[in-house]
Amino acid sequence: MSAEGGTKAIIAALAANLGIAASKMVAFAFTGSSSMLAESIHSVADSGNQGLLLLGRKRSERDRTPEHPFGYGRERYFYAFVVAVVLFTVGSAFSLYEGYHKISHPEDVESPIWAFAVLIIAIGMEGFSFRTAIKESNTLRAGKSWWAFIRRAKAPELPVVLLEDMAALVGLVLALFGVSMAVATGDGRWDGIGTVAIGVLLGLVATVLAIETKSLLIGEGVDAEQEKRIIDALESVEQVDHVIHMRTEYLGPEELLIAAKIAVYHDDTAAEVARGIDAAEAKVRAVIPEAGMIYLEPALDEADRRNAAKPAGKATGENV
């Protein structure tokens, strides 16, 4: 993900959530609706989440230090994980508690016109934020399904914003349903039911985010298609016979570590092997631009090692 694209989506979501949170708070003050209160807290939490994502991007740009020789790229994953925790604890847990309280002690929704007006405005603002996130994601999705994009994206910001905005839109519809049913039936428990549904939705989204960002945080490598491209690039070099084994790991969204043991020919000189390693690194970076750190270990495979240890005549089966 480009820095510009990710930042644009985050800022759009932040602006929308701040405006929505303020309008929902006003509606709650006039209506006393627990759905509106839950949605207000949800929007406040989302605003804080966007702030955390921006903080993570900023801190990840720090230079390497002796204590952190591979840099701070994973700070973006850490703050995305914190977002998932905040969404679960502040958004989901509070909504579930408030919904249970409203169902146990139902109250009439006062001044419902305020709730309807704010919810419709909020749906429009959240829709704008969601549209921005979709537009930014489409430039990187490369034909993949949305689920595959969320699963395989190495930059956490867009998947987080996408899932948050989707949850917010569905939550607004649930709040609108709860308030509408409470007004139509005169039963305030419908407001609580809508609030509980919002809490369950936020809990599911937070769980998905936590699982995906945890995977990034503990270290993910390239997918099968990228791994094949790297191996093909390495083996296309004249001095490389084949790749013995390889390990990859993302140190951050834009920095990939590649470590590989490559088989070289036993009759190549050290200078030829060194030139081959330089050429191999250049070819890998041409196909995988984020490959910032490449460590290649030259070695003989077992057959070459045995042949190199034998006299030439014995290696060919001739008498000496």
Could you give a quick summary of the protein structure above?
It is a multi-pass membrane protein. This protein folds into two domains: 1-218, Cation efflux protein transmembrane domain (Alpha-lytic protease prodomain-like); 224-308, Alpha-Beta Plaits (2-Layer Sandwich). It is built from eleven helices and three strands, in the order ααααααααββαβαα.
Structure description:
The protein is built from eleven helices and three strands. It is mainly α and 320 residues long. The chain has two domains: 218 residues, Cation efflux protein transmembrane domain (Alpha-lytic protease prodomain-like, Up-down Bundle), CATH 1.20.1510.10; 85 residues, Alpha-Beta Plaits. It has a three-stranded mixed β-sheet. Strand 1 and strand 2 form a beta hairpin. The longest helix has 30 residues. It starts with a helix and ends with a helix. The N terminus and C terminus are likely disordered.
